[in-house]
Structure formats: structure tokens, C-alpha cells
Amino acid sequence: MSEQKKRPATKMVPVQTHAIVPDRDADKSPILECHHLGIDFGGLTAVNDFNLMIGRTEIAGLIGPNGAGKTTVFNMLTKVYQPTRGVILIDGHDTSKMSTAQVSRMGIARTFQNIRLFKEMSVADNVLVGLHHEMDYRLPSAILRLPDFWRGERIARERALELLSIFDMQDMADAKAGSLPYGAQRRLEIVRALATNPSLLLLDEPAAGMNPSETSDLMDNIVKIRDLFHIAIMLIEHDMNLVMGICEGICVLNFGEVIAKGSPDEIKQNPVVIEAYLGKKDKKEAQ
Hints:
Layout: E1 12-16, E2 19-22, E3 32-41, E4 44-54, E5 59-63, H1 70-77, E6 85-90, E7 93-94, H2 100-106, E8 108-110, H3 123-130, H4 139-144, H5 147-164, H6 182-194, E9 200-204, H7 212-229, E10 232-236, H8 240-246, E11 249-254, E12 257-262, H9 264-268, H10 271-278, H11 283-286
Parallel strand pairs: 5-10, 5-11, 8-9, 9-10
Antiparallel strand pairs: 1-2, 3-4, 3-6, 6-7, 11-12
Helix pairs in contact: 3-5, 3-6
């Protein structure tokens, strides 16, 4: 693994019991609050008593061993699953009984572990799907191809190219999405999520399948996205160089329950986290 760039550490400050956010967000209301969140599948509890707060411009990490419940949390936040118990607040608004489309309109966007692009459509058209909320022409204009339809399409395409330029992908705009290399498809999925104009971007294993150079570029671009759009980003990731390199607050799950929260330095030194990842040392082994 090539050496990753050193980034200045963010000071994390307490704002409520068991909650920390970056100091720059301490005087602002959090973008996300989860209180005692949980979900059961039949008799199995997948996530239990999940509590989390994310600042308005925080880059947060959700980590844990395989099967810990990380993607299940993302599915609850985006209402792919309805929680069995607990409360999710987006920008202070309760999302109980809301649909996936409704929470998307409230400002949550996500990517998935398994890439979900429209592979037969062009790169630009995939981004245009995310820009549907910006189309202000009416159906008759689209059917009859009236001037306001063409004007709206031109503006949307310009915006799509602008978003693609974040990852230097504007020259790929007319290529078929399914023809892109794996890493480029991952980046395109992030661009499409950004097109929905989110306040909170959820990235599910964004570096999966990337080589060290691509991962380093991705780290730079995640920070760039946060700074350009002034949004919060929460990511699930197994690449600890990436997590420790850009995340400001980290939440650790194991068997569906939070076992630690803190800054990267605190998480790296937490014996409970180390045990969850590496297992408990046998007493004879330790001697």
C-alpha cells in the first residue's frame, strides 16, 4: 500500500451525551440523529440500540467486522428497511413511516456495495437520472419537444458535465456506463448520488475493488466533495488507511451494537475495537 497523504486532524468536541461532532459544526444543528435505532428480522435482532449524531459537514466512518450490521444501518437510514424501533431525524425532522423517495427528497443520497448503474445508458444519462428534480418543464413540453424542454435538457446536461468534472470524467459523458472500468463505475455512482443535491451522502464501501492509487484519489475527492458542497458524508469501508485518513468521527459496530465511537486516534487504540477485529488473545499465547 502506498503511503497516504497526511491530513490535519479535526478537533472533535462533545455536543450532547455520548455525541461528538467537528468543532466547526458545534454551533449548528446536526444533519443526522439516530436514537435507540433497531431492527429485527423475525426472531433475529440485526441492529440494536444504535445511537449516532453527524455534524453538518462531518466526514464520518461506520466500521466493523463483516456481518456487523453496517449496511443494515444504511438501509434503515434510506428506508429500504423500516426500523423496528427508534427514531431517525434528518435535519431535525422525524422520518418515521417515510418512504425511500421521501427521505431522498429530504437530502439523503447513497451508493451501494454492488454497483447499481443503468449500464446500457450513457454516463451523462446516468447523472441526468439523478438530476430529475431539476427538470422544470412539463410533460406536454417533453412530448412536443417545445423550446422550454430543450432549454431544460441543455441546462441539465451542463450540470451533469460539471458534476462529472469532479472526477475528471466529463470526457466519458457519451460512453456507455457499463463499458467503464470498475473504478470509474464506482466514481460515476457517487456523481449520480451527488446529482440529487444531498445534505448527507452515504457511501457503502466506495473503495472496494480499487487499487492504492485509485483509493488515494478517492480520498482526495471525498474531502473535495465535502468542501465544495458543504455536506456531510458517512462511509462504510474496510480500507482502514482510507477510514483513518479522512474520517473525523468513527462509529464501530459489532454484532449489531455500537462498541465504540471517537476520533481515528481513539478508535485505533481502543482495546474493544482491536478485539472485535483481531479476536481475543489466548492467555497462554499472551504469556
